[in-house]
Amino acid sequence: MSDYRIIAPVYDWVLYPFMRGIRRDVLEMVEQLKPDRIIDVCCGTGDQLRLFRDRGMIALGIDYSDAMLNVAARKRPGISCLKQDAAAMAFADLSFDAAIVSMGLHETGWEQAQDILKEIHRILKPSGRLIVVDYELTTATSAVAKAVIHKIEYIAGGAHFRNFQRYNRKGGLKKLIDPHCFLPVKDRFHGQRSIVVRLLRKKN
């Protein structure tokens, strides 16, 4: 995974115009679910957690990047973020009512992304809900959006770009999410149908 020491301090500022609507979609979905325990997997700078806090909800975030967690720490009080490997979380089975993973699966590598989803399935309660935000580039996606996203990921470079390419070659979320583990409930699209906010239900 890419080193976030350079991008972390400006991450929110750079991405806010693109992520604002997405973050609010996630917030609205979670509010409708009314979960008792929420976890934001690969929480990054904690921006989604800040929105939960501002609506009076308590959520826990995990990430493996010290740089991202340092930025998240400045948004306290009311935000709790732990350093953990999302593919091997230190939580008991059936611990959470809802989980979010936002723009984290395409960049981790296919096998690790599969492991993350297995871990989320493990820690979710029966019929728990998962909200995944990530790229879904299809024939419905505009050519302009595809070109812009490809350029952004190319600039990120290294393993990040290679993981992005493999994620798309292998079919993205539709192939990554195991239908034996999660069933789709509803989708919302952003960025000229390049990014999906997908609500799923844990299949027990």
Structural shape: globular
Spatially, the strands of the biggest sheet line up as 3-2-1-4-5-7-6
Mind describing the biggest β-sheet? 7 strands, mixed
- Can you write the helix and strand succession as a string? HEHEHEEHEHHHEE
Give the amount of beta strand, in percent.
15-25%
Number of helical stretches of at least 4 residues: 7
Helix content: 40-55%
Question: Structural class of the helices, strands and pairings?
Answer: alpha/beta
- The rounded distance between the terminal residues' Cα atoms is 31 Å
Q: How confident is the prediction overall: mean pLDDT?
A: 90
Number of strands: 7
Rg (C-alpha, Å):
16 Å
Low-confidence stretches: none
Keywords:
about 200 residues, 7-stranded mixed β-sheet
What's this model, at a glance?
By secondary structure, this protein is of the alpha/beta class. It has seven helices and seven strands.
Task: Summarize the structure in words.
The chain has 204 residues and is α/β, with parallel strands linked by helices. Helix content is 41%, strand content 24%. The chain has seven helices and seven strands; from the N terminus they run αβαβαββαβαααββ. The protein has helices at residues 11-33, 47-54, 66-73, 110-123, 143-156, 158-169, 172-176; strands at residues 38-41, 59-63, 80-83, 96-102, 124-135, 182-190, 195-202. It has a seven-stranded mixed beta sheet with strand order 3-2-1-4-5-7-6. Helix 1 crosses helix 2 (47-54) and helix 5 (143-156) packs antiparallel against helix 6 (158-169). It is globular.
